[in-house]
Amino acid sequence: MGYGFSPHGTTLGITPILERLFSQAGYTSIQSQTHSVNFSIDAEAWSDFYRNTEIVFDGALPMLRKANPNLQEDLTALYQRMLLEMQKQDFCGRWYLLTVWGTTPATTSMDPDSAM
Hints:
By secondary structure, the protein is α+β, with helices and mostly antiparallel strands. 38% of the residues lie in helices and 18% in strands. It contains 3 helices and 2 strands; from the N terminus they run αβααβ. It has helices spanning 18-24, 46-67, 72-86, and strands at 28-38, 94-103. The protein has a two-stranded antiparallel sheet with strand order 1-2. The N and C termini lie far apart (47 Å).
């Protein structure tokens, strides 16, 4: 197994197995809903995504630099390039998400009435 649940180590790979993990954890009535957010340059969500990108990567850069000091200049250049590309008039972006939920069977140890 590679990084996360990805067999090749290229992604976290958790989305395809979320429902199985819920089932293995004892959840029942498992459901899921897919979502996507358009954060292209002309989309309503663009400015929030742009700002969040600045915050997340600005916070992550010190950790990434510490993990691999040889990449310091490359990381800074990549970060700046990413921000510039997000500002281009032809920038298109979409974020895909999966929400999974379920219920757990009632247990006596968690039932407040069973303590009486």
